[in-house]
Specification:
The protein is built from twelve helices and three strands; from the N terminus they run αααβββααααααααα. Bound molecules: zinc ion.
């Protein structure tokens, strides 16, 4: 599917990945027209777009802030080392920090390129909360939620026509719709619950408190702003309940929150 690299599709992916909403009440589509290789190609394209736009995405330089990246990669590796991710070896799982203290945000592209804003890192209290958020993002990539939603939103026939170059006028419509901020391409409620559940499963195999992501949602009650990537997700209360259910189902093992190492992580940021 070489034609997938069409700039306009990359633009669609950009909008999708960065979209904040979710498609209320819709169910996850089991159909995914794209190959795993497509997910990786999309991810690389988005990564390149982000790298080319330092004004919009001021990515923290790894050579200048090696300690911050060591923390980030250490947390990522503890999740990868659970052996629970389907594409543990196939995806690069590159992690980047975006310098913007006003953004409580994180996102992962298809193929597992992940971005965390300094605002989110500084907002959280301990490492289990951050690891929970990271595990959630990793599971969206690992379960290939982006390309499932893209398949669902535009339909197999439509996407095939676009990919075969037979539907260029529809492409213009899609792009126009996306430009007006329609949220059809964002993750479904089901996908969000699924990513929360996976986050608990992953962390349960580490020394972290597997309910870390619930700690994050609890904290949101006092938040001055709802984080962008959660604004229309299922309600935090429902999510906390399901996270606790999953944790109990797994055996209710207490884990560590790692406040000290997380403080060191924060202190390594500009
Ligand atoms: Zn999510």
């Amino acid at each position: 599917m070489k034609t997938l690299m069409k700039p306009v599709l990359i633009a669609i992916l950009m909008v999708f990945v960065l979209a904040s909403g979710c498609n209320k009440g819709s169910d996850e589509s089991p159909i995914n027209l794209f190959s795993v290789e497509d997910d990786i190609e999309f991810g690389k394209s988005v990564e390149a777009e982000i790298a080319a736009n330092p004004q919009d995405f001021p990515v923290l330089d790894k050579a200048t802030y090696p300690e911050a990246y060591q923390h980030l990669e250490r947390i990522r590796d503890s999740i990868l080392n659970t052996g629970l991710l389907y594409y543990e070896d196939k995806f690069e799982w590159k992690v980047r920090i975006i310098r913007d203290d006003t953004m409580l945000n994180a996102f992962a592209t298809p193929g597992g390129y992940m971005y965390f804003y300094t605002g989110l890192i500084k907002y959280l209290d301990d490492e289990s909360q951050f690891a929970g958020v990271m595990a959630h993002e990793m599971s969206h990539a690992d379960l290939r939620h982006s390309t499932s939603m893209l398949t669902k939103a535009y339909g197999v026939q439509m996407l095939l026509s676009i990919l075969l170059g037979q539907a260029n006028s529809q492409l213009a419509d899609i792009v126009a719709n996306l430009a007006y901020g329609l949220g059809e391409l964002a993750y479904s409620r089901t996908m969000e619950y699924q990513a929360d559940e996976k986050a608990v499963e992953y962390l349960y195999q580490t020394s972290y408190d597997a309910r870390g992501i619930a700690g994050f949602f609890l904290k949101l009650d006092d938040a001055p702003q709802t984080p962008q990537f959660l604004s229309t997700h299922p309600s935090p209360e429902n999510r906390i309940e399901k996270i606790n259910e999953k944790w109990t189902e797994l055996g209710g093992k207490e884990g560590n929150t790692y406040v000290e190492s997380y403080e060191a992580f924060k202190a390594s940021l500009p």
